[in-house]
Amino acid sequence: MNKQLLEIFKKRYALFVLFGCLAIIGIFLNDSRNNSNRWQEYNHPNTTNTIASEATGSTELLTQYNMENQSMVFVETGPNSNVYYSFYFNENFLAAIIILAAGFLMFFVDLKTGFNSFLFSLGFPRKHIYFAKYLFIGLPLLLSVLVGKLLMSLILFFTIPTEFMNLSIPELLLGIGTSWLTYVFYFACGAFIGLVSGNTILGLLTIFGFGLSINFSIPGFVHAVQYALYHDTERYPPLMSNLFSIFITKSVPLWQGYAVFILLSVVLIIFGNTLYNRLSLEKNGNYLLFDNLRLPTLVLITFYVPIAFVFSGSNFIGIDKSPFPSSFLFSLLAFIIAGGVIFSKEIIRLQTKLTNNLLNKA
Predict the structure, then answer these.
(1) Nearest 5 degrees, angle CA 280-CA 281-CA 284?
(2) pTM here?
(3) Residue 75 DSSP class
């Protein structure tokens, strides 16, 4: 990284990056404390005996069940299912929110504050500025997620008895790695949205809507594909913790899903570099800064909305009727609203032209 550019970035971003890194690590440390305390609380002999007495009157039987199952850090959902959940390895969504928001603000703030004009006037190649932002902002924040997950795991390993920590070191490292890749995907998506957005209100609404819906859209996409292949709403997709999770899990991940997320992250970063080299500051204020993205964005939103809100979760599984009427309604509403926003200037221009023609004829 160029020394002059590095000094500029230090003055501009260093304090915020440092605060973000400390906040992320602090969140994971707090999670580890809460998880450890939860295990100690639920597995204290007095607590176990009380629950057993109230539930069955047989302290011995329930205590034995609790020791063999619920005391384990990861509990299998069924016999030989290889799918697990955990009461004691929970993580806070705040770290994911920080990562998504940081990615979005990385480009969006510099556009809205006019800092892009200053950066572009320095004569540095834009691709140097673009990748320097990822290195100076994205890399420390994502590494802090990795450090936070490792610290949280170490604390749990040292505070929960070994016989209940049914997670081997290879499984732990695999869980940390796959969940970290989800954070990378979050950051890449947030950065791309921040790069192409030019309107303050609509840009914030877009990243907010994406953040709320992303956890629905992934299972929704799997449901939609399965329905297209089998025409069956009773088929449950692979557990999402195996496919797309910010949490450390014991379940064996689906490598195909994570390969897709890695590929998408790389594509977003590389395509973002291409767009950044063509960024025009005159488009500031438009919903989209690049005209050639308007039609693809409209198509994406039209399909994304029904996938996220019709084919996801309990809204889809086990229904007796076809999901296509609801999908069509959601797609139509999304098309009308998104089309009105994306092509607002053209719509206003056409409306003005038609009004003038009517007035001239009158």
Answers:
(1) 110
(2) 0.86
(3) E
How far, in Å, CA of 342 to CA of 352, rounded? 18
Alpha helices in the chain (DSSP H): 3-42, 45-55, 59-65, 94-112, 115-121, 126-133, 139-159, 169-196, 200-230, 240-243, 255-277, 294-309, 324-342, 344-361
72 burial via Cβ count (<10 Å: 0-12, 13-18, 19+): buried
Going by their DSSP bridges, the two strands 84-85 and 75-76 should be labelled as antiparallel
Find, among 88, 77, 72, the residue nearest to 36 by Cα.
Answer: 88
Q: Is 26 helix (H, G, I), strand (E, B) or coil?
A: helix
As a whole-number percent, the residues of the chain with pLDDT over 70 amount to 80
Per-residue pLDDT averaged across 108-129, rounded? Answer: 92
Cα 322 to Cα 244, 302, 311, 328, distances in angstroms: 27, 19, 11, 11
Rounded to an integer, what distance in angstroms lies between the CA atom of residue 217 and that of residue 211? 10
> C-alpha distances in angstroms, 123 versus 12, 117, 280?
18, 11, 16
Query: What are residue 284's DSSP bridge partners?
Result: 286
Q: What is the pLDDT of residues 242-270, one digit of tens each?
A: 566 777 777 766 777 778 888 999 999 99
Q: Which residues pair with 150 in a beta bridge?
A: none
Q: Taking the CB of residue 270, how many other CB atoms lie within 10 A of it?
A: 9
**Tokens in use for 233?**
């709403």
CA distance 314 to 229: 19
